[in-house]
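ugh finaly. both done.
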Amino acid sequence: MTTLPVDLSASQYERKDLNGKACALVKVQLATMGAQFEGNVVGSTDYKTNEYWVYLTEGSYMLSVKHPSFVTLSVNFRDYSINGVQGKATYRLTLLMPQAGGVVETQKLIINFSPKNATVLIDSKLYKGEGRVEAMLPVGNHSYIIASDGYETAEGSVKLNANSPRTITENLTESKSQQIQQQVLVQQTTPAQPSLQEELPVVQQSAPSVVQQTITQTSATASPSTSGSAIETITVNGVSFNMIRVEGGTFQMGATSEQDYPYSNEKPAHLVTLSTYYIGETEVTQALWETVMSTTVRQQRDKTSKSLSLRGEGSNLPMYYISWNECQDFVRKLNQLTGKNFRLPTEAEWEYAARGGNKSRGYQLSGSNNLDDVAWYETTTDKGTREVKTKQPNELGLYDMSGNVLEWCQDYMGDYQSSAQTNPTGPSTGDCRVCRGGCFYDNAWDCRVAKREYFLPNTRDYDLGLRLVLQ
């Protein structure tokens, strides 16, 4: 069961329920006629070549499939990380014909695990749950992987039989490096208390500089780099921008099961573990670029050719007409002004944040399966950029990671490897640098969180922008 954000059939052939609300369309691929469907089905079912069109009320998550030659099959969409179908959205459900001699039997696999926020893959498919996942699978052998940042990864296989569900429990053990870090922290967090005879240091407050910082902290005494703050706000010459904390974790990167029709360079999907970092709430705006680099988007355009078109001018519009090389200059100057350690995101950091980090709901796009909710793209713009933060954010509170402008990443473009990686930085050499996210003239397919693009580092164009990471 997958969502098809680029398939507009549900909107083009809209059907409404008794309350006048738009229905979802589930395209059931089944190579036989005579099937019937039960659940919150609205109206008649249309049969096309090897495909049934079934309309369901919004929020439905169950569908029963009946056929005179086979046993009834009940499909729970929540087994596929779909809590309920959305109106005007199109889905695909593929049902395999039974093998000769009988139906394909299924059984439930239950995995209990700790820590509760671990990533669980069964047969390379991501399953979500807090300490427990359940999956209906064909009878037979299956493999699983359970991973979490700071813990040893657990891998195994399990055989399901038709008689009863199978339950397994995996409690991950902390990695040796994590245990050493905890020991160091324990030693560092027990400082000696000053005696009554000691004088406490007097803190002198200096005059504010041109570069100011406003920190939203969970602890009034912690420094910004260690406080665990959800948001860090930086102000440079009167221009403010937010950096959002992304908790480290393990995720499956690349052509995961919900990514329809992926490019070959998105394969294979592979496990990646990342440390905690901060990423820009928005793309770098024209106001921030101008205050750091002293050049406007028009001047950036003129460096290439004055005959090229501008795709929007304004302080709150994303910056564009900037090359990867110029992004490096921007980062160096910003670091000098702030005393911070900004840089471009690695490709893995970009995708993890776009997917919603450890709050991910498994969308194809950043924050939704409905592109209109989260992105400025080909059908919502007049072929130009739009102000940042005018669409819905993703699960982490990040804006425009699908659409508006493409975003440079630090990595060279290269092929993915199937092995698990920790804090990958891409190939050590190459010709082109990676860009991510799609832009204002792209379609929904090109705005997927796994879609990769790449350009020579001196390329400057009307769709190329950037987003910052704070180390």
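ok and the 2nd:
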Amino acid sequence: MSYSFIDPPSYPPPRRGEGTLGHVRLRTLMLVGLGLVALGWLLYSEPVLAQCAMCRATVTQSPEGRQMSEKLNTAILVMFFAPYLVFGTVATVLFRARITPFVTRLLRFLLLPR
């Protein structure tokens, strides 16, 4: 039996959450899109001025200070993020037993089809 474009065969309607991509759910596409936007936002770089106004005035008064100004900015940023990194590591080690089941349930909820 042949069908024309005018009279196509009847197919079951797509299930909720499915679009033209078939097995890919809308929620998965939204999560991937959101992840790509977040990644693009994180990779977008702007010059960061970590120095306060007084530090900047003191450093830029001498030629040697102007040369080390960029390295000083980097050092200040490293010192800013180091406590968060240490705290995050300690919290992960201490609460691993409580975090693992939660993350497992969250990933099952987000990634596995229902």
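summary for the 2nd one i guess: The chain has a mean pLDDT of 77.
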